[in-house]
Structure formats: C-alpha cells, structure tokens
Amino acid sequence: MGHRIFYGLCLCLLSALVGCQAVQAEPTAMPSATPTPTASATASPTSAPSPTSTPTPSATPSSTPTITPSPTITPTATITSTPSITPQPTIGFRFDNWGRANVPTSLQSSTLRSLLVFTNSNNQVSIRNLATPSAENTTEILYFVDPAAPASRIEVVRLNVATQDQIYLAPNGRALAYFLADGSRSGLYILNIENALSGRIAAIASIPQRGINSSPTWSPDGELLAVTLETGYALDIFAYDRGGTGRTNLTNHPAYDMFPAWSPDGRLLAFVSDRDNCPSWTPGDPGACDALTTPPPLGGYVYLYDTQSGQTRRLAEVFTSEAPRWLNERLLTFAGGNQSDLLNPQRTLWIADVQTNSVRQVLAEGDENALYLAEAWSRDGNLVFVQRAYPDRTDLAILTASGAVREVLSDLNFPRFGVSAAWSPDGERYAVGGRDGQCPYGVRVFNRESQPVARGNPPPSMCNPVFSPDGSLIAFTGVNPNVDGRLDIYTSTANGFGAQNLTAGLRGRMTLIGWIGGQNP
Predict the structure, then answer these.
(1) What is the rounded distance in angstroms from the CA atom of residue 397 to the CA atom of residue 322?
(2) Around Cβ 103, how many Cβ atoms within 10 Å?
(3) What value, to the nearest 5°, has the Cα angle with vertex 187 and ends 186 and 188?
C-alpha cells in the first residue's frame, strides 16, 4: 500500500516537471494546454517571481521623483515670469566717483548775490558758418553766471546730454544735485559748492523710480537732499547729507512714498503716499496689494512728516499725482485729480493750512468741469494765476483762494499746457510767458491788480519766467527769430525792462535751470 502511494507521488512530480518543461519549450502552445495544470504550474512560479514584480513598485517610486520637482518648478516659474513681485535689489548708500568741480573760491563761501544757473548742450565751437549744420556732440555744460557780469560765466561741470534738466538746486546756493548718465558711472551726484567736491550718492539708472518721476529736493538750509528710491517692493524717501556722509530713511513704509517737498523752515516734509489704498506691496503682509492683479499707483494722498517728532500724519483725502508746493511755513498747495485718465481728465486746485489742518478747493463758480492748469501762487496764498481749460476754449485768470475771479486776461491767448507764470517774492507783480518754446508774446509783467507794467513785443519773446530770490530780476528764455529761432537766456529788471542776452556767445541748446543763492525778502 505504501509502495503504491510513493509510486503515485513520483508520477505526480514527474508529470509536473514535464508540464513545466512543456510550457517553457512551447510557449505558443500554452493557450491550448489543459487549463488546470497550467494554472497550477503558473501559481507556483508566480510566488517565486514576486521579486520580478518588485521592479514594478520600484518603478513607481522612480516616477515619483519626476513628479516631485514639478510642484517645485511651478512656483519658481511663476515668480520668474512676473518681475512685479520679485523684490528689487536694495539701493545702498555710497559716496564714490568723487572729484573736484570748477567752483571759484569766491563762490565757496556763502553766496550772497543771486546767480543764474543754466546748461548749454551741443556747443559747436568749431562752426565757422552759422548756416552750416554740424554733427551733434554729447556734452552738456553746467554754467553759473552773475547777471551783473554776463561775460564772467563759470563752467562748473561737464555732463552727458542725457542729463537734460535733471539738475536740482539748493535754494541757498550751498549745493546742487545732478543726474549723470554715463555707463558704469551713472547715478545721482551731489556737488558741495562750499568745498567744490562732487560724488555719487546713489547708483541708479534713472531719476524716475518704478515709473514715478519724483524729483529730488533740497532742504532750505541746503544740508539734506530728499530722494525717492526703490525699496524691495515699493518706494521710500531718503535724506542724503550734503557732505556725503550718510542717509536716513524718512518714510520707511511698505507703500509707495513719493514727491517730497520741504517746508520753508525745514521742519516738515510733505509727500504723497498710496498707503491708504494699499498698506503694503510686500507679499505676505496683512492687507498687501497683489502686484499680479493691482497696477502700481500713480499717486496718493498728501502726508506730512515732522522731522522733530518723527511723526507722520495725513493732511488731505484728495488724490494727487503731483508734488505739493509750499507757499510759506503755514500754507501748502497741491493739484487734485488724474490727468492721465483720457476719458475723464481732472485737475483741481487745493490749498491747506498745516497748522489748523483745514483744506479747501479753489473753484470759481461754473468751473466744475474745467481743468485748472499752470497755476502760480502769490506767497501769501491770497491770489493764484491759472489757465482754465474748458472743453471748447481756454483763458487766463487771477482767482482768490476762495475761488472768486479777480481778473480775466482776455488779451493773452496761449494753447492748453502752453503757458507759464511766476510771482515776485513780495507778491507785488507777476510775469506771464509761454513754455517749451511756444512763446508768442514778448515780456509781459503785471502788478497785483493785473494792470500791465511791461508789454514788450518780441524779440525777445518770453518763456518760463522766474524771479530771482531777492526779487530784483526776472530770468526767462526767449526765442530769437533772427538766428534760426534759437532759444537764449535773458534777464530783465523786476518790471520787465532792460532785457539782456546772457548766452549770445554760445551755440547749441540752452536750458534755464533756475536761481541759486541770493537773499529772500
């Protein structure tokens, strides 16, 4: 009995072995083989090749690393393709590229008399025939000139023509700042007139920062230069020392701060900020604006920074996209509205008393839809010259601070945005001219009651008039039609008489920068 069982087991093992060989030798016949033995034979090796099935799961993790970088790449690609949320490099403090300017010793002390500052570009000294054109050069020369001695003009510094009018004067004549466009040497420079030393304080590619053209401005004592600079995500206002020894972040806020303006006593700094609309542009901050979906601001509300207390307060809830302007230590003016809205351009006038925090609009009856342009205020804040632009016409008017019309200058007709006016420091007269080469009239000066004081005919015509700090002279640019319509720089008395050409001996393009030094009345 036992032999039969043993013999049966041997036959079973032998048939199993023969079955395996048959499967291996004739795989094509496997479908026609008896299903039962095939299944048995397959079940047995299936557990053995389980290591063979192991590569299959190991292949699955091998694909996992391929998927893992995918989420890593996604945010990286988003940030890289959207520079608006990539922090800008911090603009560090420096004082390099320094050198000596050509400032005479007589001007290195406190300047008591008024000097005129202008630039001359493309001065082709080799021209023998004025009618023969010559290739342009790239040099812009900054000059000081005493109107009492026009031939004694002083060449202070040579710049690149790309500087244009980006020159910023300290009112008391102790310093000036200028932008130099010159490759690796480009940046904002300070010239300390008292020691004739100049140096670069900020290695920036342009004065406009993040699309905002906010001009640097000097404190009244000429010691601090307020500059709007990019931070990681927005703009702050920094104060640079005249001697190039350091700087301070005055606003230090994650919003856009721009358009600084010092009060005449130097205590307050007015500026414009969008912090009410956007408390921060830094991603992740509470209430931060998303640069991916929110366009950068064009302006904001007027704020005041107190240099003594370090406190900042909002002055007015009126949107503005321009720098405010101080009339005196108490009164501040600014323009409201947005002119860049082509479908509904707006420009309104406002005057504020910083001591009482009262703000009011200057608006004549019936002018609700008019644009108020080219305003020039008397220093006491009682009168303002303005060009009123209506849908079908423009005019020139003198208004009171309450909006009453004192005078309409009906005999003068300038194109829209084509007029410029200036009040004398004592507020007793004002001059009216064109701007940007559009100068149809000669010297025109009026007294406080808008009665004509001078009514000259060109040449010279009058453009961009500005009174000297002591009020004794008017500087202006004038077109000389006898010399190919070129612009020259003139001065006249405060009444508009005795015009003299200060740049007749130069060639090229003249740009009036302004006055430096002198004593305010």
Answers:
(1) 22
(2) 20
(3) 145
CA distance 208 to 331: 28
pLDDT for res 344: 75
> Secondary structure of 385-440 in the HEC alphabet?
EEEEECCCCEEEEEEECCCCEEEECCCCCCCCCCEEEEECCCCCEEEEEEECCECC
pTM exceeds 0.90, yes or no: no
Q: Which helix (H) or strand (E) holds 240?
A: strand 235-241
The lowest-confidence range among 113-117, 122-126, 239-243, 445-449 is: 122-126
408 DSSP β-pair partners:
397
Question: Could you tell me the domains of the chain?
Answer: 1-43 (no CATH), 94-517 (2.130.10.120)
For the stretch 459-505, pLDDT in tens is 889 999 999 999 999 999 998 766 666 789 999 999 999 999 999 88
Asked if 414 contacts 438 with a C-beta cutoff of 8 angstroms, the reply is yes
SS3 at position 461: coil
Contact by Cβ (8 Å): 287, 280: yes
Going by C-alpha positions, the residue among 183, 173, 274 that lies closest to residue 233 is 274
